Amino acid sequence: MSMEEDVSRQTPAEVELPAPTAWPIVLAFGATLLFAGLLTSADLSIAGAVLMVVASIGWFRDVLPHERHEMVPVEAEAAEIVTARPEVVRAGPEMQRLRIPVEIYPVTAGIKGGLAGGVAMAVLAGTYGVLSHGSVWYPINLLAAVVDADALQLPMDYLTSFHLGLLLVASLLHLVTCILVGLLYGAMLPMFPRRPILLGGVIAPIMWSGLLYATLGIINPLLDQKIDWRWFVASQIGFGIVAGLVVVRQARVRTRQFLPFAVRAGIEAPGMTEGKNQP
What values do phi and psi take at 155, rounded to 5? Predict the structure, then answer.
């Protein structure tokens, strides 16, 4: 009997493992909102308490009355023990430990997702401006008012008209924010093996919209009075769903454990690759 036949006979077709769940992190975020509301708003504490109850129920259903498991297929493979090191190498301070996850989305996936989500958010925001104030420039000028707060005290005719300076400021803020959040999605979505679009595209935008709703009245009261929060949440959800769909459709790559960031980001970096000493 060959080694491969012996391994295939001893290896089961499937192995039972605990099913992954994202409820613990949702519970932790709910607790964060609960205590943050003690310093900001009672509404934030109520939202955190509700989130904690929902997360607790979801977590309990995953483990009670029986722990949920899933079957993972196992591929039989005869491992050939081969080494190029005749001596045992001890792990020392100079050696780094293994990093997880093993597979991640490339940096470009997060950038693509952020840009696509930014387009979806801009369409929804522009639609709101046309329907509510008859001007596509209203949400743009409102975003630029984050930097130029004096614009909020000007007449409505000013906020609904075109201004090149405000357009440039709003475009820069929108572009940078969308790319940063897209990169965050690319890093976080591999941690949600089940329903990543629901968690990253719906639940996460509602969470940070609620946090902003509770704190904006303190940070910028004038801006808080002019924001339509229903459209704001709809725009955030639109961004999250589109960005999440674009990211999850990208091919994952194996984590290149110890390469410099420039190489992992896909930037041509002579001298940092393995072939740096080749002619």
Answer: -60, 160
Q: Tell me the pLDDT band of 53, cut-offs 50, 70 and 90.
A: very high
Residues of the chain with CATH 1.10.287: 14-77
3-state class (DSSP) for residue 15 = strand
Mean per-residue pLDDT of the chain:
76
Q: Decide if 22 contacts 92 (C-beta within 8 A).
A: no
Query: Which CATH architecture is the domain 14-77 placed in?
Result: Orthogonal Bundle (1.10)
Which segments within the chain are labelled E, that is strand? Answer: 14-18, 69-73, 103-104, 253-254
Average pLDDT value for residue range 211-224: 75
Backbone φ, ψ for residue 48 (5° rounding) = -65, -40
Q: Is 7's pLDDT higher than 80?
A: no
8 Å CB contact between 174 and 142: no
